[in-house]
Structure formats: structure tokens, C-alpha cells
Amino acid sequence: MIYTRLYSLKQPSLDIRRRYPLLLLIISWIILFLFYGIPFMTTYSSYLLPTTSTASNTTSYCTTYATSIYHAPWMAYTEIGIIYSLPLIFIFIGLIYLLQYLCQPQPRQSELAARRIYLEQRQMTWHTFLLGITFFFLWLPWISIRILIIFLHTYAIQHALQITYYILILKSLIFPLIYASTNASFRGSFAIYRHQRVIMNARVWTINEHSIQHHRGY
Fold first, then answer.
1. CA distances to 86, 138, 148, 152, 158 from 142, in Å
2. What is residue 71's DSSP assignment?
3. Would you say residue 92 has pLDDT above 80?
4. pLDDT per position as a tens digit, 171-183
5. The dihedral of CA 183, 185, 188, 190: what is its sign?
6. pLDDT, greater one: 181 or 5
7. Which of 50, 61, 128, 132 is the most buried (most CB within 10 A)?
8. Taking the model in full, what pTM does it have?
9. How far is residue 176's CA from residue 126's CA, in Å, rounded to a whole number?
10. Does residue 210 surpass a pLDDT of 70?
11. Which burial class, exposed, middle or buried, applies to 183 when counting CB atoms under 10 A from its CB (0-12, 13-18, 19+)?
12. How far apart are the C-alpha atoms of 115 and 105, rounded to whole Å?
């Protein structure tokens, strides 16, 4: 299962830990350079805003915030298909796959160990499904406006794009809360950490109290 490969630490895989993330990072850099770096360098003058000083009569140029990159039509369509649509399709297929697994009835298992493993896997599947569906719905507005601004570059769409950035900020705030509330291992580790902190604080308080009493001569 996908969640078992990603979350299980008992059987780590060197290919997933090293080769695949590195390959994905290199491909992402190449795609970003081809679709954003080269068009920005070739049409750099389109982003320059000239400002003339009335006192010294000098003209200076500053770069404005680019809400979109000037692409050729074929690059715009490729950008929509590869950078925006393809990740959404993969996420949607993954959510359907996880939902299909969650809708399956619980098998009748007599052994307690097998039942406990099944419940842990189901809980981890819920954890992955909630994270995925939250990411999908909070990322979808930005993707939709980002695709629309390629064809209609108006002030209203730019303003809507700025609003979607606040939604992305909200996503970065909601994600840790959902991760902490749905991940049982994280809650268990936090409970152990909090218990150790309580024990350590009690020991420090006892040592300090003993030191004060010894200093007073009790």
C-alpha cells in the first residue's frame, strides 16, 4: 500500500529515501527553469516600470511583481497540462484509491494482532486521505485562477489571485493542525514528551526545594 511505503519506518527503502526525491527535485528545477526562468529572461523588459525623477530628470527602472509570465501559446498550454493539471489529476486519483479502501468492510479476523494492524493501517489511511483532500480543496482556487490569468489578464483576476494567496497561507496553518490531530504516532510521541517534561519539572522542583532547605539548615 502507498501509505505503508511512506509512513512505515520498520522497513525503510533506500530508493524512496534517496533516489526518487532527488530525481523529483531535479525534474522540478528543470521544469521551473524552462517554463519560468527562460521566458522571464527573454521578456525581462516587459516587467520593467520606468520612473522619472522631477528633481534630477533621471529615469530609473524597477521590476514589478509578476503575476504571470509571458509565455508562448504552446508553452501556456503545456504549463496548464504539466504543472497545474497533472498534479491535481494524480491527487484526485489517489484520493479515489484511498476512499475505495476506506469503504471496504472490515474483514473478520480472529487474531488480535492482525486486527490491531488493520486498525492502525485504516487510521493511517484516514490520516493520508484528510491531508490529501484538504490540500486539494485549498490548492484548487489558486490553480484555477492561475490558469485563468493566462487567458484573461485583468485587474479583477489579479485581485482574485491575491486572495488565493491568503488561502495558501491558511493551508499552511491548517495542515499542521490536521497532521497532529489525525496522526496517532505524533500524538503518542507528544504525550510521551509531555509526560517526560512533567517528570523532569517535578525532579527539578524537588532538587530546588531540597537545596533551599539545606541552605536554611533544616
1. 15, 8, 10, 15, 11
2. -
3. yes
4. 888 877 877 777 7
5. negative
6. 181
7. 128
8. 0.55
9. 15
10. no
11. buried
12. 13
**In terms of Cα–Cα distance, which of 139, 147, 145, 140 is closest to 159?**
145
- What percentage of the chain exceeds 70 in pLDDT? 61
Task: Spell out the alpha helix ranges (H) of 103-154.
Answer: 112-151
CA R_g for the chain: 27
pLDDT on residue 90? 86
Q: Which residue has the cell 479502501?
A: 101
Cα–Cα distance for residue pair 134/128, rounded to 1 Å? 10
Residue 52 β-bridge partners: 59
Phi–psi pair at 36, nearest 5 degrees: -130, -40
What count of other Cβ atoms lies within 10 Å of the Cβ of residue 158?
A: 14
- DSSP-assigned letters across all residues of 162-200: HHHHHHHHHHHHHHHHHHHHH-HHHHHHHHHHHHHHHHH
Comparing C-alpha atoms, which of 85, 154, 206 is closest to residue 214? Answer: 206
Within 10 Å of residue 128's Cβ, how many Cβ atoms? 19
Residue among 131, 140, 208, 217 nearest 174 (CA)? 131
- Taking the C-alpha atoms of residue 28 and residue 34, their distance in angstroms, rounded to an integer, is 10
